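Open question from group meeting: does this chain pack into something compact, or does most of it stay loose? Before anyone orders reagents, we agreed to write out a predicted structure and look at it together. Recording both the input and the output here so the notebook holds the full record.
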Amino acid sequence: MTARTRFSIVSEKLRQRSILISDGAWGTLLQAEGLKPGACPEAWNLDHPERVAAVARAYREAGADLVESNSFGGSPSKLAHYGLAERAAELNRAAAVLSREAAGEEGLVIASIGPSGVLLMMEEVSEEELYDGFRIQAEALAAGGAEALCIETMSDPAEAGLALRAAREHTNCELICTFTFERTAQGEYRTLMGTRPAEAALAALEAGATIVGTNCGNGMERMVPIVAEMRGAVGEDVPILVHANAGLPKQVGERTIFPEAPEEMAALMPALVEAGARIIGGCCGTTPAHIRALADAAGRWRR
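Structure tokens returned:
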């Protein structure tokens, strides 16, 4: 494939506004809409499109500048668990179309691409197979109208690199890449593969991302040192995105809850911005109320 002109529409909007607000958890809202445990969320893009669109619309109405898509588990390898691998392109394209319509003229779609669910290092899949799966997903999301692709919740820089290369070589979407980190007993942050935030961010940039960051695994407070380490590695010009959980999960009976209220999350936003984050949204446990609180708090940094 010949080289493409790369759009940087998210980065350009960020230059205009200083801080952008992204959306929040999708699984939480889809479950509220009726998605049953163990069901395939991506199948809803065709079976219940109005309910999927309602999630994107709720976040946009709450003040999100950027909305994702119902395609986190849309790789052929993950869809194979539901017998839907052959419909990967159809399901991903539908996901992007629904978010694109809900985002409206002013919103942007940063379509979600999650981990494949198979491990390169364990030789469960070849690099060629993994690349091709990401290619199918990226092409379909771009065809559905996504302005950017958010390759997220990554642990392995090698897998992230293949996803970025597939998207870079087969779309002209802007590329975002985020990793998930856990705090070690020594107080450091590393992915499950042992990668530190600085290493992950630099690897993503080398592979073609223009925006890097972190999502899931931590609440706003623990995201601060992760962002600070990334900022020190990538310099001041690279945008950093954070999708934080609504605090650390707690077990209440048989339920897992994320306890951080919208106002508590918004109160931690200044520290995150000070550390270097420029795009801020939510992950597990967050709702439109959390995003609305973040959007209200962002007003102080808007140009």
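Observations to bring back to the group:
The chain has one domain: 9-298.
The radius of gyration is 18 Å.
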